Amino acid sequence: MDGIVPNLQEMREIVNRKASEKRDSRDELNKNVGGFLSTRNDFNRQVRELISEVQRQKGIRDEANGAVREAKSERADKNQGVREAKEKLRELSPEPERTDRNDRRGRRDKEDTPASLKRKIEKLENDFERGLFLGKNEEKFVQQVKEAQSKLRKMSEKEDSNVELKDARDNLRLAIDEQEVAHQTVTSAAETAQEAHDLMIKLSDEVDRLREKADASQAQVRRVKREADREHQSYIVSLRCLHSIQDILRAKSNKDKGIDTGDKSQVPARVEVQDLMSKLMSGETLSTDELMALQRGG
Q1: Tens digits of per-residue pLDDT, 236-261?
Q2: Cα 66 vs. chain centroid, distance in angstroms?
Q3: What is the largest CA-CA distance in the chain?
Q4: pTM of model > 0.70
């Protein structure tokens, strides 16, 4: 028995050192677990915020799409108003002068209108400024301009005297303006809906990316937690071994001193340590302070 005491004492030091190493390793791993949990929770917080923003953008998009539908219906009414105004104007417009002279392709000349006459006069003036009417052609230019201006003046006078026709022109201009406003409303609402939809897609992609990171952090939590649990179990085993070695050494010391271990008055009180060891052996969880006390007082 005396021969194994030095070995047991050396083994006690080794086991005690091993227990301390396992405890420190466990504590460091648990600290890492806390870091990964914090990272995971931060990612999940960002995910929740982005999902909330996605829902907000969805509301904007849906509202804008509803506005698009209403604006399109309004625009269709305005388009119909333009068509009706044009038809009314055609009914009231005087018949343009016609000629029976055919062009080289066998088609009749185009009918003159105020707009076509204005374009014709503008073209003649531009051609004159470019020097296309020189010499005798200048008289031709003057004659053509006079004829076009005369026709335009007669048409304008005739139209100005027709109040109903003038009102029809005013109504057409108003209908065209309203049509343009309705079209702009459709375009604006459609752009708002598209922008919200595009942002939704972008945010959803970011949600997926952050979820992947949160899942990766959770995987790290599980992995490091398993490592911490293994280190903790090794720590517990070391404590049990340390306790057993110390019991053997104490029993040997008491025997050498002639102390009767059955006489409680002769044995130092170790109730607390024994209670802690009993709890540990039964599978109960001990606090860090209790485990430290057990390691020190084994």
Answers
A1: 888 888 878 877 777 777 777 776 65
A2: 22
A3: 153
A4: no
3-state secondary structure at position 102? strand
Q: Which residues contact 44 (CB under 8 A, 6 or more apart)?
A: 214
Phi, psi for 113 (deg, rounded to 5): -135, 165
Q: Kindly state the helix (H) or strand (E) to which residue 98 belongs, with its residue range.
A: none
Instruction: Give, in order, the Cα–Cα distances in Å from 210 to each of 45, 178, 265, 282.
Output: 10, 48, 66, 43
Task: Residue 191: name the closest of 80, 71, 75, 74 by CA.
Answer: 71
Rounded to whole angstroms, the Cα distance separating 112 from 94 reads 11
Long-range contacts of 289-296 (CB under 8 A, 24+ apart): 291/23, 291/235, 291/239, 294/239, 294/243, 295/16, 295/19, 295/20, 295/23, 295/239, 295/242
Distance (Å, whole) CA 231 – CA 223: 13
